[in-house]
Design brief:
The complex is a heterodimer of chains A (about 375) and B (about 260). By secondary structure, chain A is an alpha+beta fold. Chain A has ten helices and ten strands. Chain A has helices at about 5-35, 40-50, 65-80, 80-100, 105-115, 230-265, 280-305, 315-340, 350-360, 365-375, and strands spanning about 120-125, 140-145, 145-155, 165-170, 180-185, 195-200, 210-220, 225, 270, 275. In chain A, helix 1 runs parallel beside helix 3 (about 65-80) and helix 3 runs antiparallel to helix 7 (about 280-305). Chain B has one domain: Rossmann fold (3-Layer(aba) Sandwich), CATH 3.40.50. Chain B has seven helices and 13 strands. Chain B starts with a strand and ends in a 5-residue tail after the last helix. Classes of the chains: A alpha+beta (about 375), B alpha/beta (about 260).
Chain lengths: ~375, ~260
């Protein structure tokens, strides 16, 4: 068993850390404050291959793997959780299902533009009445002979305001329950497709979260992703992969908050000494550092299993559960260590605390992760 | 067009701490980086490649771990890499270093040799010009910008203390480049992945055909008489003020110290 980083991983970290420090961190407060999508950063990331890390070069990707992708989301999120999730949703939730379930024609048509970052992708599963109970889909797709006709509304869709391609989950046969659900590749420019209202959120405020609305939306027959009736499985597998991305985001947020807290507690003096000299500070930081490192090992192991084509869905659930809860605990304590200053926007930790919360909710709540883990050990 | 860029692995001086007792640099645990001026030179070569097409070879002298900066150069877009590594090269001053590099360069094809102006660990700015002298090539130092006519003529902007000069030179030639010349590009993810599939040529004494007496410690006339660290005089003062107030503060300070009246 070898836990050391490869030379390739070290070189990658050198690049992504420099990029995050110089290009991402300086914008983090501003895009949060203005709820602005960081399009200029997306363009820079596209040029460097960051929008398609785990996909082959001949399909527009960078020829990397899920371990590099996970490190990328971690390092970006350390600086700015919005930027982290823009990459994660695009890569894991839109590019990956096309790569894993698409036909050769679909891959050739969509991946080069998506994985190169020329186009931005989304994933539409959640509906007003179908959240954790994703089987309760009310978006309907009807086979019209020469095309599919989609009607319904998806909500809380990351990247939606700037999307070009959307993976849409819809009911094709209600009588079949989850076996009557199918997946579609829907371009934003297809007739009947529109982007609805933008959410005002607590955190990750720059990620352009909107509704996707389909009103008699015409989708070509060849844009069915996978087989009819297999959409629920595609959605669940997609979320398994997505959880590695979100766990990496949570890990990055936690590490970012830890870095800020170390700096602050060494500088801030009370009762004649830096607050890092107090044992309460030391013990709490030691506990948190241990949890962050444990999260990292869980995330790296899940990403490694995905790269090795081993079963990883329980690993993905565990790393997301643990990293998300660590991020929430770390950021909450980071604010506490910063005291009154931590509650202001003068320091980044309040933003990190708001950003951390979503990692316990999206791509499966912490409770859903526990259901996945329990189902695996009790089967 | 063939461009050779000379690069050097140096300790990251922004991370350097000095031993409080001996006053020498603590090298342990200090990360190594590609020398910033050399990276500026590599970027200049990459821009010429983007515009006119070129084959870029990076060359460095150093221990085997200097491979890291060659991989980094690959990930930025360099095509080939040569590592000059031999016990006989060790302990070299600038003269022995330039003799070693020139020996290797004589065996290679090139139109332009680019070096950084100087390395941040030694700050001598001698190796580039010495290479040009050994190879009997025209040289332009302190280069900020270069334009290529697509044939043999380069129009070069050279920084001087007062401003800059515009000079013309024909290839083959040597340019020494400032890191401020351009913002070096990031490595691309694809470049990083492919960087480890490329071979690096490792050359020793046998490959370069230079008299052994001119290499390494034995070929180095430089002797360090003494090295010392200047102690900090006093803590600086930080004033965050508007420019006109800053001027007033500075003028008052200078008057206080009797530097101006």
């Amino acid at each position: 068993m070898d836990f050391s980083l490869s030379k390739e991983q070290e070189l990658f970290l050198q690049m992504i850390r420099e990029f995050a420090e110089k290009e991402v961190k300086p914008l983090a407060a501003e895009i949060d404050e203005q709820e602005r999508f960081p399009m200029e950063t997306v363009k820079k990331m596209a040029k460097l291959g960051i929008m398609g890390i785990p996909f082959p070069v001949e399909y527009g990707g960078a020829g990397g793997n899920n371990q590099l992708y996970s490190m990328c989301v971690e390092e970006l999120s350390k600086a700015c959780a919005t930027t982290g999730v823009v990459v994660s949703a695009h890569t894991s939730l839109c590019c990956a299902p096309i790569w894993e379930h698409g036909t050769e024609e679909q891959k050739r048509k969509y991946l080069p533009k998506l994985a190169s970052g020329e186009w931005i992708g989304t994933f539409g599963l959640t509906e007003p009445n179908a959240g954790t109970d994703a089987g309760g889909q009310q978006t309907v797709a009807v086979d019209m002979g020469d095309h599919w006709l989609l009607n319904g509304t998806k909500i809380f869709i990351t990247n939606a305001a700037y999307s070009d391609v959307n993976i849409i989950i819809a009911m094709t046969d209600k009588s079949q329950g989850t076996r009557g659900i199918s997946a579609f590749i829907v371009e934003t420019k297809f007739p009947g497709f529109s982007v609805g209202k933008k959410e005002k959120k607590m955190g990750i405020r720059g990620s352009a979260t909107c509704e996707l609305i389909m009103e008699n939306c015409i989708v070509p027959k060849e844009n069915l992703l996978g087989q009819v009736g297999k959409g629920f499985g595609i959605a669940m597998k997609t979320l398994d992969g997505g959880r590695i991305g979100i766990a990496s985001q949570a890990l990055g947020i936690a590490q970012g908050a830890m870095d800020e807290t170390i700096k602050y507690t060494k500088e801030r003096k009370q009762f004649g000494k830096p607050i890092s000299a107090f044992q309460n500070t030391q013990f709490q930081l030691a506990d948190l550092e241990t949890k962050i490192q444990a999260s990292r090992l869980l995330v790296r192991s899940a990403a490694w299993k995905k790269d090795q084509k081993l079963p990883y869905s329980t690993d993905a659930a565990m790393c997301k559960l643990f990293a998300a809860e660590t991020a929430m605990e770390m950021t909450t304590k980071a604010v506490q260590f910063h005291g009154g200053y931590g509650y202001t926007r003068e320091y980044p930790v309040e933003r990190m605390m708001r950003d951390a919360k979503i990692t316990e909710i999206y791509e499966g709540t912490s409770e859903v992760q526990k259901m996945v883990i329990a189902a695996h050990i009790l089967k | 067009m063939k461009i050779i860029v000379c690069i050097k692995q140096v300790p990251d001086t922004t991370e350097i701490k000095l031993d409080p007792v001996t006053g020498t640099m603590i090298r342990e645990g200090v990360p190594s980086i590609m020398n910033p001026d050399d990276k500026g030179g590599l970027e200049m070569a990459l821009k010429l490649k983007d515009e006119f097409g070129a084959e870029i070879t990076v060359i460095t002298m150093g221990p085997l771990k200097a491979e890291a900066i060659i991989r980094e150069a690959f990930a930025m877009g360099a095509d080939k890499g040569v590592l000059l590594s031999d016990r006989k090269f060790a302990g070299a001053d600038t003269l022995a270093t330039s003799n070693t590099l020139a020996g290797a360069l004589r065996t290679m094809d090139f139109d332009i040799i680019i070096t950084g102006r100087q390395a941040i660990d030694g700050d001598t700015a001698q190796v580039g010009p010495q290479i040009a002298e050994h190879l009997d090539l025209p040289q332009i130092t302190y280069v900020e910008d270069v334009k290529y006519d697509g044939n043999r003529k380069l129009t070069v902007k050279k920084a001087t203390e007062e401003g800059y000069q515009i000079l013309e030179v024909e290839t083959p030639c040597v340019l020494t480049v400032l890191s401020s010349a351009n913002k070096a590009r990031y490595m691309s993810v694809c470049g990083i992945v492919e960087a480890f599939d490329k071979d690096i040529d490792i050359w020793g004494f046998e490959q370069i055909n230079v008299n052994e007496k001119k290499l390494g410690l034995g070929g180095s006339p430089t002797r360090v008489a003494k090295s010392f660290t200047r102690g900090a005089k006093s803590a600086g003062q930080l004033h965050e003020v508007e420019p006109h107030e800053a001027v007033e503060i500075i003028v008052n300070k200078l008057k206080e110290k009797f530097i101006i009246r």
